[in-house]
Amino acid sequence: MEKRRANSSDRQSSEKTEAILAGAMQEFLAGGYAATTMDRIASAASVSKATVYSHFQDKETLFIALIERLAQEKFRGAFNSPDPQMLEKEPEIALRCLAANMLDTSQTHLLDFIRIIIGESGRFPALARAFVQHIEKPVHDEVRQYLASRAELKLADPDSVAQIIIGTLVHFSIVHHVLQSSDILPVERDRLIDNLITLITIQPEKSRTCQSQG
User: Fold this and answer.
1) CATH number at residue 44
2) Radius of gyration of the CA atoms of the chain, in A
3) Are residues 46 and 134 in the same domain?
4) Are 115 and 173 in contact (CB under 8 A)?
5) Could you tell me if residue 111 is inside a domain?
6) HEC states along 154-213?
7) Do 35 and 81 fall into the same domain?
8) Which of 23, 49, 86, 202 is deepest in the core (most CB within 10 A)?
9) CA end-to-end distance (rounded Å), the chain
């Protein structure tokens, strides 16, 4: 009997946690971080403010929990392909899958959170650091490990190349969907991916260095 009551209590607590996270998501996306209050979150979740505080210490903790949830649901794997053999295929194919997946995923709540974080990072740097820690770093580490495992790419610095790939794709998404400026920098998605993959996978015959003249 006691075990059954404990299970029921855990289930109710879990349901309230989900309701609070859903209410917080709604309020943060609608009003931004600074304008959102725990009172508004409690109202959106249909629970008392005391219940919100019993689950989350403060607003920052709750926002970071949402970032962690976003990472778990949308960024379980950088390559995230239904084909279990994707990483065994030619790098051109695997990296194309990576690029397409990242651009597709960015169309979810990710860009909305980027908008909030960019706007609030000056006053709330912990939010920006949490975003990098829970979302960008795991993706970067997975891409770096993949690049380092493919000897045929002959990459001297897989870490920097991983940052180049992610930075290019994130910048494309921000320009097109956050800054609404695709008409100013009109680069089609497929053309961007094609050239990015070519830069990484096509090895020059000779290494060229910039030498000063005179």
Assistant:
1) 1.10.10.60
2) 22
3) no
4) no
5) yes
6) CCCCHHHHHHHHHHHHHHHHHHHHHCCCCCCCCCCHHHHHHHHHHHHHCCCCCCCCCCCC
7) no
8) 23
9) 89
- Is there a single domain that holds both residue 30 and residue 131? no
Report which DSSP code applies to 153: G
Q: Which helix (H) or strand (E) holds 49?
A: helix 49-55
Read off the pLDDT band of 90 (50, 70, 90): very high
84, with CB counted inside 10 A (0-12, 13-18, 19+), is exposed
Model pLDDT, residue 44: 96
- 48 Cβ neighbours under 8 A, 6+ residues apart: 42
Comparing 22 with 85, which gets the higher pLDDT?
Answer: 22
**How far, CA to CA in Å, does 204 sit from each of 109, 154, 155, 197, 200?**
39, 11, 12, 14, 10
Residues spanned by the domain of 25:
2-56
Distance CA 78, CA 56 (A): 29
Our count of domains for the chain comes to 2
Question: What residues contact residue 174 under an 8 Å CB cut-off, 6+ apart?
Answer: 111, 114
